[in-house]
Design a protein that fits this description.
Elements: E1 17-19, E2 26-28, H1 47-60, H2 62-89, H3 93-102, E3 125-128, E4 135-139, H4 141-149, H5 154-166, H6 186-194
Antiparallel strand pairs: 1-2, 3-4
Helix pairs in contact: 1-2
Length: about 200
């Protein structure tokens, strides 16, 4: 018998074996998949035979294989996300969807449309109060990072907003002495010319 069992079978099936109807080899039950997660019956082909046939099918039907993989990836992603929301924030996907709808699909910080793709920067983040765990809403990645960087302190964020609105660019950053510190297109040309 080749290969390793994928995972241990349910307790009620330990010690059982069955014959694969494809390769004809009698194997421990752990080499067979359950028909469904809650099922009490196993598939008739062993994992190795199923995997071989899957590889053949994917080669013969590449477009359908990609479509199936994308559909399964989205299902897995939703299940992982839902499990994470429940564990971290005590909310389920329906709670999250209600918040998303109440916000019209926009970030509560910058008011930009939230991306539902896996792009990290624009992907929705559940914002919560770190001491109590109270969920406040949904933010985009940059707004969530800004709050985290300010340690959720409104006074820091107000000072930063004041700083941005009141401070003019310093003339020091445009002096010839600091020319090499500037990111401009002329810097490399000037440096070469000075040599």
């Amino acid at each position: 018998m080749t290969g390793q069992p994928h995972k241990p079978p349910p307790e009620w099936a330990v010690g059982m074996s069955r014959k694969c109807t494809k390769c004809g080899v009698i194997k421990d039950i752990s080499f067979f998949r359950l028909r469904k997660a809650n099922s009490t019956s196993f598939r008739s082909w062993c994992r190795e035979c199923v995997n071989e046939e899957t590889v053949k099918w994917k080669k013969a039907h590449p477009a359908a294989a990609l479509q199936t993989e994308e559909k399964n990836r989205k299902k897995r992603h939703k299940a992982i996300r839902e499990s994470y929301y429940k564990k971290e924030y005590g909310i389920d996907f329906e709670d999250w969807a209600r918040m998303y709808e109440a916000q019209n699909g926009k970030c509560l910080g910058c008011d930009k449309k939230l991306s539902l793709s896996n792009e990290r920067s624009g992907a929705p983040h559940v914002d919560h109060e770190h001491v109590t765990g109270f969920v406040r809403g949904i933010l985009c990645g940059p707004c969530n990072l800004a709050l985290g960087g300010a340690k959720d302190d409104p006074s820091v964020l107000r000072r930063l907003a004041d700083y941005l609105e009141e401070k003019a660019p310093s003339p020091l950053f445009y002096s010839d002495q600091l020319r090499g510190c500037r990111w401009d297109q002329d810097w490399e040309h000037d440096r070469v010319a000075d040599d």
